[in-house]
Amino acid sequence: MITHHVRVHRSDEPLPRERQLAWRIAEVAAERVEPTPDVVDMVVNRVIDNAAVATASLGRAPVLAARAQAEAHAPSSGGDGATVFGSPHRTSPEWAAWANGVAVRELDYHDTFLAAEYSHPGDNIPPLVAVAQHVGASGAELVRGIVTGYEIQVDLAKAISLHAHKIDHVAHLGPSAAAGLGTLLGLDAGTIAQAVAQALHTTTATRQSRKGEISTWKAYAPAFAGKAAIEAVDRAMRGQTSPSPVYEGEDGVIAWLLDGPSGAYDVALPARGEPRTAILDTYTKEHSAEYQAQAWIDLARRLGRERPELRDPANVERIVLHTSHHTHHVIGSGAGDPQKYDPGASRETLDHSIPYIVAVALQDGAWHHVASYEPSRAARPDTVALWRKVTTAEDPEWTRRYHASDPAEKAFGGRAEIVLTSGETVTAEIAVADAHPLGARPFARADYVRKFRTLADGVLADAEVERFLDVASRLPDLRPDELAGLTVTPLVDPAASVPATRGIF
């Protein structure tokens, strides 16, 4: 890896484009580097993972709305169009990316990477698949594009914190998706750099979408970034230019949205010829909840089985979760959001409430992507009573481990301290989720396939499940005409039973 020092430059202090971060990213994307076998294998896993969570969300309102918007846009003249999960119609690729991005993100159930910034690198896949289908790319070209998208997003997330300045994490997704598209299409560095800069410029937004009463926009935000990246690449291919230097300019992103005029970052990117392996640093979710909740769900399930008396709020005086700064302030009581303790809160809010999640996982000994969020489940009196006894506290050691560069030390859990009304104190800790690469049961291909089968149960016919898994497993060798198989057709179209609501389109 080569570390690039990125700082703000005054207007009277010119910065050649070859030294700008957008150009450095573009150089990585423009180089044709064949992925290693383990990287290819993980790309296949994540394509299956995305399809699994999209399948489970096909009938949800945000997904149906995004699909309806996409279906209003026929394939553009530049290609054959792209498929939309659950839909019999091909659409223009940017709109397919939009609809599929919402379907993938809706349940907060696909892969994650947490470092200086947090991210869901699988959000790169919908725009890349859509464009690959539209232009007639091969499976191998799509794989290379996905590898670049993961690489750039992970590298940016390691170096540049967005949430510290209340900027939403999709500001790293616009550039990474644009870079991945550049690799997919075989574009030169100059064109990719313009697309990366414009994608960044158009996808910066505040974190209010993940604060307070969380709205349906949470699922749309990454889809918007993927759509914007496609449009940015299209404009760049037509010779149009973008704000420059977009990161380093005196009125640029660093100066006004991040660390300010004196801000500087060290961003490590692959050297020429170096394998792009960042996807191997990422991890998926066994449970449908914010990633920092994964380990806590596993710990709570275990405690509930081992000590069933902990499930009764009458036996519990308080539960304190000692954890990292991020977990405490984003999904814990440190956020100061009363909605995190509200039985009437939205699903989007509840999956960002670690007090709720721990209470339910402790009582149920399980976690389900639908049942665990049902309004009746959230409103159960004994659950509400236990839930309101759960708080979080920042522990410097867990914060240090959260940001550790050594994978063996990096952790996303913490220590639970449960004080019983009897006076006894129960303590237990967990560092990483069971499904994490260093966890008790690391996810492998069989686990991704099982997740797909589980989430497809009752939604897809058995033959459709097998058809998709066959296509996905052959991804590196797919012909252009076979890429259309990277979608799913449900047994019953959920859109058929939902009254159509009209918008402008």
TrEMBL record:
<dbReference type="InterPro" id="IPR036148">
    <property type="entry name" value="MmgE/PrpD_sf"/>
</dbReference>
<dbReference type="InterPro" id="IPR045337">
    <property type="entry name" value="MmgE_PrpD_C"/>
</dbReference>
<feature type="region of interest" description="Disordered">
    <location>
        <begin position="327"/>
        <end position="347"/>
    </location>
</feature>
<dbReference type="InterPro" id="IPR005656">
    <property type="entry name" value="MmgE_PrpD"/>
</dbReference>
<comment type="similarity">
    <text>Belongs to the PrpD family.</text>
</comment>
<dbReference type="InterPro" id="IPR042183">
    <property type="entry name" value="MmgE/PrpD_sf_1"/>
</dbReference>
<feature type="domain" description="MmgE/PrpD N-terminal">
    <location>
        <begin position="19"/>
        <end position="261"/>
    </location>
</feature>
<dbReference type="InterPro" id="IPR045336">
    <property type="entry name" value="MmgE_PrpD_N"/>
</dbReference>
<dbReference type="Pfam" id="PF19305">
    <property type="entry name" value="MmgE_PrpD_C"/>
</dbReference>
<keyword id="KW-0456">Lyase</keyword>
<dbReference type="InterPro" id="IPR042188">
    <property type="entry name" value="MmgE/PrpD_sf_2"/>
</dbReference>
<feature type="domain" description="MmgE/PrpD C-terminal">
    <location>
        <begin position="287"/>
        <end position="474"/>
    </location>
</feature>
<dbReference type="Pfam" id="PF03972">
    <property type="entry name" value="MmgE_PrpD_N"/>
</dbReference>
<protein>
    <submittedName>
        <fullName>2-methylcitrate dehydratase</fullName>
        <ecNumber>4.2.1.79</ecNumber>
    </submittedName>
</protein>
<dbReference type="GO" id="GO:0047547">
    <property type="term" value="F:2-methylcitrate dehydratase activity"/>
</dbReference>
